[in-house]
Structure prediction request, 644 residues.
Amino acid sequence: MNRLFTARFFIDRVFADNSFMPPSVTTIRVRYAETDQMGVAYHSNFLIWCEVGRVELLRQLGFEYSQMEIEHAVHLPVAEANCRYRAPARYDDVVTIETRVAALRSTVIKFAYRLFTTRPDAAEPVLLAEAETVHVSVDRAMNKCPIPEHYLSAIRGTMDD
Amino acid sequence: MNRLFTARFFIDRVFADNSFMPPSVTTIRVRYAETDQMGVAYHSNFLIWCEVGRVELLRQLGFEYSQMEIEHAVHLPVAEANCRYRAPARYDDVVTIETRVAALRSTVIKFAYRLFTTRPDAAEPVLLAEAETVHVSVDRAMNKCPIPEHYLSAIRGTMDD
Amino acid sequence: MNRLFTARFFIDRVFADNSFMPPSVTTIRVRYAETDQMGVAYHSNFLIWCEVGRVELLRQLGFEYSQMEIEHAVHLPVAEANCRYRAPARYDDVVTIETRVAALRSTVIKFAYRLFTTRPDAAEPVLLAEAETVHVSVDRAMNKCPIPEHYLSAIRGTMDD
Amino acid sequence: MNRLFTARFFIDRVFADNSFMPPSVTTIRVRYAETDQMGVAYHSNFLIWCEVGRVELLRQLGFEYSQMEIEHAVHLPVAEANCRYRAPARYDDVVTIETRVAALRSTVIKFAYRLFTTRPDAAEPVLLAEAETVHVSVDRAMNKCPIPEHYLSAIRGTMDD
Prediction:
C-alpha cells in the first residue's frame, strides 16, 4: 500500500521546489450548507475552495478569470484533482487557502494548495488538506489551445522571482 | 512532469489487479444545478457521484451505509480523493458509475471508480473520469477504529471470489 | 403572522384546481453530500430536486429541456421559488417528487411540487415539502421571449385533459 | 395570477415595518461552482447565501450559531423559504446580503433578505433577489422548543430600537 502515499511526497516536493514563490492567500468561512451529517465539511467542497484560491491567485497577478473566459475565450477546465484530507473542517471555521502555481507549460497549468484553519484549542494553525489541480487550456469548443502569452509570462515571472 | 501521471498508472493497476471482482454499477443523471458556465458538469460533482457509487456497492453487499453509522457508529470519512477527468459530462447525461473495492485493511478501505456515459454520436461508451478515494474508519469522536469484522469479511469475500 | 400562511393556501388551491392533471412522478435518493450537520438534507437541495421533477415532467411531455435550450434558445430561469418544509428528508431516503404545471402564460410557467418519502415506521407516505417555482421564458441574452407554441400547446393539452 | 405576487408585497411590508432596524450586511463572491450553463448563479445558491447572511446577523448580535447548536442544543431548521429573483447574479460578482429579523415569537423566527450587487455598467446597486425564511426552534430530537430567552431578548432589543 506504499503507493498510496506517492501523491503526498509529490505535493511536498512541489511546495519545496517553488518555495521561492509566495503563495496567494485567501480565506473562506465554512457554510452550514457545506457540512454533512458527520458534522464536518463534506469533502468535495475542498475542491470548490481550491477554485476560490486559484481565482484569487490569478486576481493577484492582475487577471480576472471571468475576463480570460470572455476576452480570450480561454477556459481552464480541471484535468486532474488530488486532495489529501488531514483534519476535518467544521462549520463556521475560517479556512485559509494557500495557492501556488506548481507547474506551467503552454497548455497546462498546475496549482498546489494547502488549507489551514486556526482553532482556540490549537497553538498552531491546523493543516486541513493539501491538494493539487491540473488544468488544460481549451477554447470555447473544448479544444486544446495555448494559454495566451501575457498570462504565461506574468505567471512565469512570479515563479522565477 | 512525468510524476504527474503516476496516479494514472496506479489506478490502472488497481483495476487490473481486481479484474476478478465485478464492479458495482449504478447511474445518475447530470442535474442542471451541477453544470457550470462552461456548459459542463462542475468537477467537484464527480466526487459526489463517486459517493453514490460506493454507497450502492455497499448496498449490493447487503450493507446500508446509514446503518453502519447508526448501529456500529462507524464512519468512513475520505482521507484522500484523486480524480482524472477524461471528457466533460454534460447536462442530462446519464452517467454510469463503476465502483470497486481496490484495497482493504482493518482501518482503511480504498474504492476505485470509472465514470462513463453514452452519447448518440459515439459508438462506444465515453469514459468521463477515473477516480479513487481512500477512507479511514473512525468512531463518532473521529478516532481511528477498525471496520467491524462482518463488513470486512463480506468485502473480502467479494474480492477473493 | 397570518400572512405567513398565505402561500400555503395558494399552493393547496393550485393542486386542487389542477386535480385533473396527473402529476409527473420521479424519485431521487438523498445523497450524503446533501445532508448537513443537523443530520437532515440541507433545505436548498429541495429546490434542486424540484428541478429534477420539472425536467422529468417536460421529458414525459416529449421535450428535453437541454434541447429547448439548444434548438430554440429558450431558457426558463426561476423568477420565484417558494418551499414549505413539512418533515426532514434524511440520508438515503428515496424522495418521490410530484410535479404539475400550475399555471401557464405565453412567457410564464409555474410548476407546483409535492415531495414525499416512505419510512418503515410510517403507514403512509410522509410529506416532506410543498413547493412552487415560477419561470419566465427568456432568450440567450436573458430578454423575455414567448415559450415556443408547440411547447405551450403540449402543456396546455395536458392541463385541459 | 394576481396571487402570485402576494409574497412580494408581504416582503415589502416586512422591510417597511422594521425600517427602524438596521439590517446586518455581509458579502459573498459568486463562485464558479455556483454558476450553471445559463451563465448565471444557479437559483438554489441564493438560499445558501441567505444562510450566510443570517449567521452574520446572529454573530453581530453576539451569538455564534454553532454555539447555539452545541451549548443550548437549539437548532433553527428552515420551515419555509421564499425567494424572488430580480436579476441574475454572475460569476465573480460580489453579492451584498442585507438581513433583518422580520418576525419573532418564542419558537419561530423569520428573516428577510435583500441581495444586491454593483456593476460597472449600473449607476446604482442592482437588486438581485428578495427572500424570506421562516425557522422553527427545535431540540436535537427535532421537537419544537422555545428559543432561549437571552437570544430572544437580544433580538427583540434590536427590533425595538
Notes: Chain A has a mean pLDDT of 86. Chain A has one domain: 3-156. Strands of chain A lie at 24-29, 78-85, 94-104, 108-117, 126-136. The first helix of chain A runs from residue 6 to 17.
